[in-house]
Amino acid sequence: QVHLVESGGGLVQAGGSLNLSCAASGSIYSIDFMGWYRQAAGKQRELVARISRGGSTDYADSVKDRFTISRDTAKNIVALQMNSLEPEDAAVYYCYLRGVSSRIIRVIRDYWGQGTQVTVSS
């Protein structure tokens, strides 16, 4: 089973920075995307950023130019550098992986980390 382990969340002042990291392990045949979602209290979960197998990236408009997603393909690690954090960025951030765990079945599935809390104080 694919296992995602996140680190780097915490409390930061407005204008500060945090770096989130997510390491994927387990049975992985292929990866389409790795990235980050977030969900604030009372709001829907939203895509923050993702990076594809080929290295292309997508960002939510609200974080573009402030957040940067990167990857270490060899280690199946994805990171999110978050700069100029705002109170509106406070949420639980979830690492995700979209991929295939079996070359025989080849069913695309989404895998999720446990979530890490990001709190931004004003």
User: Rg to the nearest angstrom?
Assistant: 14 Å
Distance between the termini: 40 Å
Q: How do the helices and strands follow one another from N- to C-terminus?
A: EEEEEEEEEEE
Largest sheet: 7 strands, mixed
Q: What is the total tally of β strands? A: 11
Provide an overview of this structure.
With 122 residues, the chain is mainly beta. Helices cover 0% and strands 57% of the residues. Strands 2, 4, 5, 6, 9, 10 and 11 form a 7-stranded mixed β-sheet that branches. A hairpin with a 7-residue loop joins strand 9 (91-100) and strand 10 (108-112). The protein is elongated.
How would you briefly describe this protein structure?
With 122 residues, the protein is an all-beta fold. It is 0% helix and 57% strand.
SSE layout and pairings?
Blueprint (H helix, E strand, L loop, with lengths): L2 E5 L2 E4 L4 E8 L4 E10 L6 E7 L4 E3 L7 E6 L4 E6 L8 E10 L7 E5 L3 E6 L1
Parallel strand pairs: 2-11
Antiparallel strand pairs: 1-3, 3-8, 4-5, 4-9, 5-6, 7-8, 9-10, 9-11
List keywords for this structure.
single chain, 122 residues, mainly beta, 7-stranded mixed beta sheet, 4-stranded antiparallel beta sheet, 11 strands, 0% helix
